[in-house]
């Protein structure tokens, strides 16, 4: 579990995040949503330590990340897995070498053990057959799955995903969402996903934090999104015809009940 307590982030005289408190639960897909410029990316960067909060606390299973020394934070990051908006793979390395890279850097495993672990993770994302290919020889969706395999290869307790469906078609996005949800439960990780994909919200949003102009506007799950009366949330989630129809049906069912 990750807890954010009264987190504020300022850049000079501009307040980007204002007194945000939220809980991100273990074994669930936790989503941060909001319009462009809302502060959701800044929030995630603060949580993982890429930015320092102006004030407030970030607790990893009760451990205060904001109070740690630089050395302690480096050790802490070994418990984190990251999936970037672009897959961020090394073009000169094969798929297996990309997945194995964190093991080569940070583990004490033998070469055989590292190769075996990398292959286990590739098998988990159904890409073992592609292990000898290079990133430019596989599709964008496959590259994202390689990034997922690399992110879990060190058995992280915490998984962070920045717009994992960016640039993917709807069908491939569903595959990525399903995979992230399954892995979260299989490994009992605390997964935080920064997304603007409303299909992800309604598909895997077990715990959703909605950021609006630097404030936490709403928190709930995908079922509560449907029945929410929060206008700002509705304006974001039900912007498409599909979700407007879902909302309309929900309201009609309530009236007929």
TrEMBL record:
Highest taxon, organism lineage: Bacteria
PANTHER family: INTERMEMBRANE PHOSPHOLIPID TRANSPORT SYSTEM ATP-BINDING PROTEIN MLAF (PTHR43023:SF6), PROTEIN TRIGALACTOSYLDIACYLGLYCEROL 3, CHLOROPLASTIC (PTHR43023)
GO MF term (any one): ATP hydrolysis activity
UniProt keyword annotation of ATP-binding present: yes
SMART domains: AAA (SM00382)
Protein name listed in UniProt: ATP-binding cassette domain-containing protein
Gene3D superfamilies: P-loop containing nucleotide triphosphate hydrolases
Alphabetical UniProt keywords: ATP-binding, Nucleotide-binding, Transport
Keyword Nucleotide-binding on entry: yes
Record domain ABC transporter: where: 2-238
UniProt xrefs under Pfam families: ABC_tran
InterPro entries the record matches: AAA+_ATPase, ABC_transporter-like_ATP-bd, ABC_transporter-like_CS, P-loop_NTPase
SUPFAM superfamilies membership: P-loop containing nucleoside triphosphate hydrolases
């Amino acid at each position: 579990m990750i807890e954010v307590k009264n987190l504020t982030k300022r850049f000079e005289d501009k307040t980007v995040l204002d007194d945000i408190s939220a809980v991100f639960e273990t074994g669930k897909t936790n989503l941060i949503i909001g319009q462009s410029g809302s502060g959701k990316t800044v929030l995630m960067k603060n949580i993982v330590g890429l930015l320092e909060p102006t004030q407030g606390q970030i607790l990893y299973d009760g451990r205060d990340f904001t109070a740690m020394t630089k050395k302690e934070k480096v050790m802490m990051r070994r418990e984190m897995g990251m999936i970037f908006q672009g897959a961020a793979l090394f073009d000169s390395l094969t798929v297996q070498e990309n997945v194995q890279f964190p093991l080569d850097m940070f583990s004490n495993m033998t070469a055989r053990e590292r190769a075996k672990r990398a292959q286990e993770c590739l098998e988990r994302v159904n890409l073992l057959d592609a292990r000898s290919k290079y990133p430019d020889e596989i599709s964008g969706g496959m590259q994202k799955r390689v990034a997922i395999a690399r992110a879990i290869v060190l058995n992280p307790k915490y998984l962070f995903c920045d717009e994992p469906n960016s640039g993917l078609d709807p069908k491939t996005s569903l595959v990525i969402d399903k995979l992230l949800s399954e892995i979260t439960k299989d490994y009992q990780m605390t997964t935080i996903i920064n997304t603007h994909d409303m299909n992800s919200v309604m598909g895997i949003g077990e715990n959703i934090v909605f950021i609006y102009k630097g404030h936490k506007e709403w928190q709930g799950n995908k079922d509560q999104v449907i029945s929410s009366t929060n206008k700002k949330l509705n304006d974001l989630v039900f912007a498409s015809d599909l979700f407007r129809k879902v909302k309309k049906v929900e309201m009609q069912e309530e009236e007929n009940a």
